[in-house]
Amino acid sequence: MTQPMVSLSGLYKIFGPRDMEVLHHVQNGMGKEELLAQHGHVLGLNNINVDMQAGEITVVMGLSGSGKSTLIRHLNRLIEPTAGEIIVQGEDVMQLSEDGLRHARQEKMSMVFQKFALLPHKTVLKNAGMPLSVRGEDEVTCDREAAKWLNRVGLTGFENHYPAQLSGGMQQRVGIARALTANTPIMLMDEAFSALDPLIRTDMQDLLLELQKELHKTIIFITHDLDEALKLADHLVILKDGFVVQQGEPQHILLNPNDPYIEDFVSDINRARVLRVRSIMTPLVDGKVPEDAHGEVDVNDTLESMIARSGGDTSHAYIVKDGEQTVGTLDMTELVRALVPRVASEAGARQS
Amino acid sequence: MAFYDKLFSAMGLSDWCGTSDDKAPLSLADLAAQAGGAEDAGPVFPIPSFDNLHESCNRVWQSRDVTNGIEDGFLAAKPALKAVLDPITQPLSWVLDGALWLFEATPWFIMVPLLVAISWYASRSRPVTIFVAVAIMLLAVVDHYDVAMQTLSIIFVCTTISVLFGVPIGIAMSKSDRLQKSVVPLLDLLQTLPTFVYLIPLIFLFSVTESKLYGIAIILYAIVPVIRLTDLGIRLVDSDVIEAANAFGMNDRQKLIRVQLPLALPNIMAGINQTIMMSLAMVVIASLVSAPGLGVNVLRGIRNLELGVGIVAGIGIVLLAVILDRVSKAALTRVDKTQVKH
Ligand SMILES: Nc1ncnc2c1ncn2[C@@H]1O[C@H](COP(=O)(O)OP(=O)(O)OP(=O)(O)O)[C@@H](O)[C@H]1O
Ligand SMILES: [Mg+2]
Asked: Taking CB atoms and an 8 Å cut-off, how many pairs form between chains A and B?
């Protein structure tokens, strides 16, 4: 495996004046509530170990107050950790000088904010060009790059508007254009779509995926919405009270939740829409395919499309293809079983 | 036999006090007693003031020693203070005199259109500009044009200097809580002290004929709001925007110039508006210490009981106040609007 783009190890953050002194309590297993009750310090992050791979979207999910914003702000050190290591592109962020850190923020990581955080007194064009002008690029370059990315996010014609003249969705497009203009390998997105209404939100998610297909950035995306997480994530990290409950491939987490907290999360999800054939197929053992197969399907088809295709007939079976290659078989009965969350199926089993 | 005798002997201080053997009248009470010829019984339990205590103990000061002491102390410090402050403040006199000369020397047919043009440029508002033109002509027809220009020149100089010093001080305060904590009481003091009170030490320090005397008095009084509102404005800048500025790697200078100052501008402008109004208020009082302008006519009205002169000058001041207020407020709303266009 190649070196991860971002690697967090043993990361702790405790909010309060004596964070160093109470750190050992947390390292000895004290939880968030206890720490607050006994020592008056807030536990932000608790022994975080996460690797984020280049070119992937890593989604960090958790309820309000679980430490998502705290986590993402450690990557560019908007928040200083109490203990731990932050490695970005093989470089220890904690060792950077003030100039080095500023340089890293300018050239390596750009950020998109929940509340957009645009400059209200600057036009859309100047806002989008801001990262370059901070680096000291000349105005022509800034404007040209800004216009290019504004066009890419669908805002051509709005260059001379002010942010307050745009809708929330459009403002966030400016926010994304600004991050893209910075042309950094890493993009940090803190609940970037949470302030938008559902339809606009879906649009923005599609836009992000489309851009990602082209640009292959390393994106760290924060959300408290599981649907959004499952749609975007290559790697999903679930946070609770500052520690990582489970991380891994999203489909895997969905099918094998290892904690009641996650089971609660995943119980409401439309599994047919999220799960994909590859997650539930039977891998090919010895090149043998069933002769009565009803056709070929792609590994990345959703179960929903399979149900539509089979017309709901559970006796069907399909051959699963990854491109040209045959990789497995799919039995519709397996598919139906996968639609029921594990908790529910266990509960059902107990009752009978 | 004074009331507090027993107290001092009880504390064993009679020897230290010495006997009150001198018969010369030492206090007003003594004088009154002598004049009355009879031993003054006095109140049963006199307030323990310096003078009352002195009657029992010679070593205790009298109140006039305190006032004398302050005066002596001040006079002793004066040469040193003057040696330092005089050269530093001398440019203020030059600027004030220069501006006064310029405002008076410029012929009215240049000055009036210029002022109207400035009003238009600052406010971009037709009613405000027309009002300014009419108000100045009104002042002119009652022959108050010259004095109004004198007042205006002083306000112009003092406001400019207040802004030049006040904005950086406000910026520094917004950066440091410690500095803010120590400067705020000083600002409170400057703003609450009755204006006459700080004219007193200034009169001692500088001669009444120097224009910097009233310049300093006006600036000290008028600089307060621009400092306060610059500090406040920068502290009120949306923390999300500051975070974004940090996240994109701005240094402190870039943050100040590109984010904090522009976003604080409406507040700073509100501070400047108040500074202008306070200079105007003070320039009238400063006519007591030889500041020229409309205030002189008001003073004449009071001194000589010339009702008409006083009232006309008073109306002139009101007109000037409204002009300055309207123009600076219109400029403020214009800045505000470019910030949040809906
Ligand atoms: N500056 C701070 N001082 C003290 N406690 C803080 C500070 N910032 C965050 N916290 C605490 O740390 C915890 C995690 O906060 P954080 O903002 O990271 O949560 P979050 O997961 O982003 O929540 P949300 O979804 O509401 O944004 C919370 O309990 C919060 O109260
Ligand atoms: Mg958050």
From this structure: 65
Decide: A19 in ligand 1 pocket, CB within 6 A. no
Cross-chain Cβ contact A162/B341 below 8 Å: yes
Decide whether any atom of ligand 1 lies within 6 Å of the A46 Cβ.
no
Q: Which segments within chain A are labelled E, that is strand?
A: 6-15, 42-52, 57-61, 83-88, 91-92, 109-112, 186-190, 218-223, 235-240, 243-248, 282-283, 296-298, 317-322, 325-331
Task: Find the range with the poorest average confidence among A199-203, B44-48, B124-128.
Answer: B44-48
The alpha carbon dihedral of A251, A255, A259, A261 has a sign of: positive
Tell me if residue A83 falls in helix, strand or coil.
strand
For the Cβ of A69 lying below 6 angstroms from any atom of ligand 1, the answer is yes
Burial of A260 by CB count in 10 Å (0-12 exposed, 13-18 middle, 19+ buried)?
A: exposed
The interface residues of chain A toward chain B in range 66-95, judged by CB-CB distance below 8 A, are 76, 78
Alpha helices in A135-249 (DSSP H): 139-152, 168-181, 198-215, 226-232
Task: Note whether B289 and B172 are within 8 A (CB).
Answer: no
**C-beta atoms of A135 and B240 within 8 A:** no
Distance CA A267, CA A254 (A): 9
Query: Which atom of ligand 1 is the closest one to the Cα of A62?
Result: 21
Using CB atoms and an 8 Å cut-off, which of residues 200-229 of chain A contact chain B?
none
Ligand nearest to the CA of A79: 1
User: Given pLDDT bands bounded at 50, 70 and 90, which one contains residue A74?
Assistant: very high
Pairwise CA distance, residues A275 & A270, whole Å: 9
For chain B, the C-alpha Rg in angstroms (whole number) is: 28
Least confident of A103-117, A321-335, B24-38, B153-167: B24-38
Cβ B202 vs Cβ B92: under 8 Å: no
Residue A301 has pLDDT above 90, yes or no: no
Contacts of A209 (CB under 8 A, 6+ apart): A231, A232
B269 chain-A contacts, CB cut-off 8 A: none
The per-residue pLDDT for range B324-339, each reduced to its tens digit, is: 999 998 988 887 766 6
A189 at interface of B, judged by CB pairs closer than 8 A: no
Q: Whole-number mean pLDDT of chain B? A: 87
Q: Can you tell me the distance from the alpha carbon of A29 to that of A45, in angstroms, rounded to the nearest whole number?
A: 13
Spacing, Cα A248 to ligand 2 middle (Å): 21
Per DSSP, helices labelled H in chain B are: 5-10, 14-17, 28-36, 50-56, 63-105, 108-123, 126-141, 145-175, 177-192, 195-205, 211-235, 239-247, 252-254, 261-285, 294-303, 307-339
Q: Is A76–B248 a contact, with Cβ atoms under 8 angstroms apart?
A: no
Question: Measured in whole angstroms, how far is the alpha carbon of residue A167 from the centre of its chain?
Answer: 24
Q: Are A336 and A314 in contact (CB under 8 A)?
A: yes
Q: Does B314 touch chain A (CB under 8 A)?
A: no
